[in-house]
Amino acid sequence: MQQDILINWSPQETRVAVVENGAVQELHVERALERGLVGNVYLGKVARVLPGMQSAFIDIGLERAAFLHVADVWQRQEGGEAPMFARKGEPPVPIEKQVFEGQSLMVQVIKDPIGSKGARLSTQISIAGRLLVFLPQDDHIGISQKIPQEERDALRARLQALVGDKSTGGGGGFILRTNGEDASDAELAEDIAYLRKTWAGVRQAALSRPPTSLLYQDLNLLQRVLRDLVGEETQGIRLDSREQFALLQQFGREFMPAAVAKLQLYKGERPIFDLFAIDEEIARALGRRVDLKSGGYLIVDQTEALTTIDVNTGGYVGARNFDDTIFKTNLEAAGAIARQLRLRNLGGIVIADFIDMLREDHQAAVLAEFKKQLARDRVKTMVGGFSQLGLVEMTRKRTRESLAHMLCEPCPNCHGVGEVKTARTVCYDILRELLREARQFNPREFRVVASPKVVELFLDEESQHLAGLSDFIGKPISLQAETAVGQEQYDIVLL
User: How many domains does the chain have?
Assistant: First the structure.
């Protein structure tokens, strides 16, 4: 597999496309005004302690004070042992005995501010790397629970040996992330060194900066490309901004030296995303229908609870018989579904409705192909077998907002339903509303302001009903078309 990473940078937005074997597989977007706070480390100042709520409000320099609950306070055990959270079943030390007003406290944001609520904090600091998570206040060596149990002991021993190697520094605990399961010792050692160097910078900043200062900010999208997306299969990383290219080179030399050689400054006249028609791919990724090369198609519907993907044969009649047509369509759909999950970043529960197959060997082949394609996904997935209805249930870990949620908002006309009332239905709504208004008020005239399509229907097919109502209430009814009015919207003006 050959992988290229294309980066389109502008002051307001960074867009990254991961292209594998000539096809776009992943899209990442980060906007300057919408960047979250989760992962940021601040030197906070305790503004108020609330013993009744076992919480405290911490000033970290934001518009609203942040919230720290006693359950998120990293407690120090008696005898000066390593700090830790209260063990399960043990009551935590009351918050008023741990923090006091005016105290400076290093804290990390674990939940962004929402509405009128401030950010939620923890005093346990963790810094995520590409393969590991660093816990500077602990000495624990952990392995992701998603890695099979039989492999954890060997991985723990390897990691313990690397952590104890003086060449990577010293101190702190580490947790091996799921994507570090197959990493080499050299890659793990590079990540350990990077994380310890980052933490040293945080500690130095805490000693030299005043309270409410930002000590550490999680990497921006450009930096995360080097940390998370670059692998052995990556041929090149092309970036279209000279200034950002220099900054990324500097960051790479310091923290990710192996990835720097793959950085390339794009100097072409055409926009970089035009090389692989990325903008057209984004537009298709926001639509419901995905056409397959064979003539079949997928219908993708994203809801709050789950995502459903329906497979249809469409106009595909290329196989020798109907069973083969269904099998070949499902086989192609398996790869297309796996790609759409990555491209749209769909997470949570996913239901794939394949076309019913009678033969068990066909089902097994489609399921094997589906799992094979999903294995290329850097996000953790779990797949079940076929149900009696031909459905495949699976889950994909939510890592960030889906592409649609990031780039789109609910339609103001249909309010996210996806459908609007027909013009005829709106006409009948207006007729009923006119009758209600006529019983309550006695104006000289009623004027209906509605969309051009509704007004046109009133002047044509529904003109008899409108005239009949005008005679019944004894008042003239005039019509006014407004192009800016949605099809379901209308107003009745009393003149």
Answer: 3
